[in-house]
Amino acid sequence: MTVEKLITDHIDIWSSALQTRSMAGRGSNGKIDLYGIKKLRELILELAVRGKLVPQDSNDEPASELLKRIAAEKTELVKQGKIKKQKPLPEISEDEKPFELPEGWECARLGNTVAIIRGITFPASEKHKEPSKGKIACLRTANVQDSIEWDDLLYVSESFVKRSEQFAEKGDIVMSMANSRELVGKVAYIYNIPTGSATFGGFLSVIRPYGFNAAFLMSVLRSPNIKSILIDSSSQTTNIANISLEKLNPLVISVPPIGEQNRIASKVEELMSLCDQLEQQSLTSLDAHQQLVETLLATLTESQNAEEFADNWARISQHFDTLFTTEASIDALKQTILQLAVMGKLVPQDPNDEPASELLKRIEQEKAQLVKEGKIKKQKPLPPVEFEEHPFSLPDSWEYVRLNNIASLIGGFAYKSSSFIKDSKYQVLRMGNIRPDQIRMDENPVFISDSVANDTSGYKLISKDIVLTMTGTKGKRDYLYSAIIPDGLSRTLYLNQRICKVNVIMANAEFVNILMKSNSLLDVIYKQSTGTANQANISMQSLSAWVVPLPPLKEQNLIVKLSTELLLLCDQLKSRLQSAQQTQLHLADALTDAALN
Predict the structure, then answer these.
(1) pLDDT reported for residue 396
(2) Which of 367, 371, 400, 560 could form a disulfide linkage to 385, CB 3.0–4.6 angstroms apart?
């Protein structure tokens, strides 16, 4: 089967094998990895380096002759002082050959077929952002992407270039020698040098081919097997992987005749172009699908009456099976359920329900009594909610209130690390222990002694308390994570700093937790966040004054019951989707293995 036929006959598998990158936060919100197309690209490269991509031609000069010419050219360049003489590399044993080679191919060590040149070193104080006389552009790891990026360059004094071979040349392959484990060994090709001349930094090496087709060599260095060897052979620090020349020079690669190298390079370019088209079509289709889902779901929240809502829902339910086929679409459905819940559109209104205004009066009385008994602190009165602060219109029996009107809010205590002990029945709840609707007690737990717990008893958490994180990633509208403390915990929890405890008074705590997950209400509080370039913070003052809708108590209970059921159905739907996606991933893997074997 030709590779083109392999692509076209199984295009549904390649394009439908998707993987959502796991990201912390509410919903998935992760980027989609087109896993099938990624596997297809890897397969093309692996077929290329194994001699299975294009037919062999018995008239081609064998690779052994090419290797003789490369050795002769390198010897001459050493004699002329243009490259360094390298130590002899050992012969290749049979065990080192990764697979059976086609007729006319040879195995060779990378260092015997190319020059590998390490980059220059210079003090950090010598980096400059702008070009000037005597300074030269210097490539660094950030410039090595799928191709060389020349937009964000550093410039250094040309005096740091100690050998002429350290000037970059058109046709060089640049490799990242020190990077994260995922990116170490990444290569890019120099098609041209727009700055006129350039060098490269110490975390890079240049692989300079002699008599080799550089595009074919790029396929070799990007192939899954070689990438895996480079990563596995790299030395690891905490965050950085390093490839040494001692590991790179003896790397065993497959070498086809030069005529076949040229044909392979041409075929790889053609097939990768097909993958680009397939990828673009898939991304466009996914984007259009998500836009359609969000547009249709928006008709529900924008419905003006029950009849219009029923019509809009009928339109969605008619195509439910084709609309909710991705994790992002299911997350959008979950958010719509939350939005309908807080707008009073999830359950029917009952004119016989006691209005929220009466509930508010009882809450005020209860809070006054709790203050009198010393169970909560007296809070400063907040201004009434103005009409301009309403994020949307509410049913007649509902009221807009400030969070402080229906709850007692307390910020956490700044426990010192010196107070933490190895283990006890008292655990400090930190931000890392809180995820949307989850208390993760085993996530890097820290504990305090009986005496510290006794001294900070005012920060003890009890069941039904809502905990809300107050610091998160800048730019994430839903950076506030909330969860309810459940019954029956094995340890007693105490509230750490940058977490707010919300003790709901006479309202349904689970309904208040729903309020804290709705995007439109999070928008209100997000606009009041402060912070640094990467961090967003919300203050206790802003949380206390947060404007939220309050329905009658009976309706709160109905909303919690129905929304819990609907969100559970969404989770089950997502679980089935993930199982189906796993099947698609296994199919893509199986198809790849079958093609290679």
Answers:
(1) 95
(2) 400
Q: For residue 111, report the phi and psi dihedrals to the nearest 5 degrees.
A: -65, -20
233-251, pLDDT tens digit by residue? 888 877 889 999 999 999 9
Most confident range, picked from 293-302, 474-483, 531-540: 293-302
> In the structure encoding, which two tokens stand for residue 287, read together?
């984007």
d(CA 569, CA 577): 12
Return the pLDDT at 294: 96
User: Helices marked H in 97-243 — which ranges?
Assistant: 110-113, 214-222, 224-233
Give the pLDDT of residue 477: 60
Q: Are 205 and 119 in contact (CB under 8 A)?
A: yes
* Coil, helix or strand at residue 408: strand
Find out whether 202 and 118 touch, Cβ atoms under 8 Å.
yes
Q: DSSP string covering 342-355, please?
A: HHT-SS---TTSPP
Output phi, psi for 201, to 5 deg: -80, 175
Q: What is the pLDDT averaged over residues 103-126?
A: 94
Contact 485, 509 (CB under 8 A): no
Closest CA to 154 of 135, 179, 180: 135
The model's pTM is 0.82
What does the pLDDT average to over 209-232? 93
Q: Which residue has the tokens 């006129």?
A: 196
Distance of alpha carbon 448 from alpha carbon 423, whole angstroms? 8
DSSP states of 503-541: EE-SS-HHHHHHHTT-HHHHHHHHTT-EE-SSEEE--HH
User: pLDDT by residue (tens digit) across 40-50?
Assistant: 999 999 999 99
Residue with tokens 């002429």: 164
| Cβ-contact 464, 509 below 8 angstroms | yes
Contact 77, 172 (CB under 8 A): no
Q: What is the mean pLDDT of the chain?
A: 92
Q: Based on C-alpha coordinates, what's the Rg of the chain?
A: 32
Dihedral sign (CA 290, 291, 292, 296)? positive
CA 202 to CA 265: how far, in whole Å? 29
Distance in angstroms (rounded) separating the CA atoms of residues 468 and 503: 11
Tell me how far apart the alpha carbons of residues 475 and 498 are, in angstroms, rounded to a whole number. Answer: 18
